[in-house]
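Render this sequence as a predicted structure.
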Amino acid sequence: MPQANQKENVQTARRTLSAMQTGLNRQPVTPRFGRVGNPLRIGNGPTHTDHAKQATGTLDLGGLIIDPGKRRAVIGGREIYLTSAEFDLLWLLAQHRGEVVHRDRIFAELRGIEYNGLDRSMDLRVARLRKKLGDNGQAPRTIKSIRSIGYLLVTDLPVE
């Protein structure tokens, strides 16, 4: 009797594999939504990106010059190529240089959503921005992490 079950299982597995290879697999799929709704929330007010686009003039932070009109940054005489998201983060921190910018505010202004305490997307964005600014992630001098609170852009940046 056990061999009959085993033979039946092998035949079922072969039919399933054949169906999958030909695209005829008709097994129902249960959708899992998890966190899909959270990243798709859209804020109502203007985002920080809108404010950066409307700003005029340059901001000189010692070794770092930021031009929001052209959406470019120059450090030590060389231009830094930033993504839109990285530029918006840098501009937000630069406008509040010397102050701690809370994660809640960063998420609200840059992504238009509330910070849920788990999202690490801004941490990754800050890490990429630090790297492009030539900063060391282990001992940052430009953008400092304030544990459990947010980030601080140093007022006078060292020129290298």
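Summary. The first helix runs from residue 2 to 22. The CA atoms of residues 93 and 153 lie 6 Å apart.
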